[in-house]
């Protein structure tokens, strides 16, 4: 099991490091060529791990203005209550 971060705004967890393709494209709604062009230009932060391009999901989500939580995701089947501020 890989480490994960919970994204309350999206109601789900993501791996701390995600693959350039297809994970990043699916998360931000970009085509494969758009993702690789953004990686090449430095618009999307990335580095290589064992020859694969990895993107820190927290950095990508922060760049999109999506808050990331350091609290764990709710347990499967747990009832959650949305709290308004």
Fold and architecture overview:
The protein has a single domain (4-63), classed as Arc Repressor Mutant, subunit A (Orthogonal Bundle), CATH 1.10.10. Helix 1 packs across helix 2 (32-41). The chain has helices spanning 20-28, 32-41, 57-63, and strands at residues 4-7, 12-15, 17-19, 47-49, 52-56. 12% of the residues are buried. With 85 residues, the protein is α+β, with helices and mostly antiparallel strands. The protein has a three-stranded antiparallel sheet. Strands 1-2 form a two-stranded antiparallel ribbon.
Key phrases:
two-stranded antiparallel ribbon; three-stranded antiparallel sheet; Arc Repressor Mutant, subunit A; alpha+beta; disordered C terminus; 85 residues; 5 strands; 3 helices
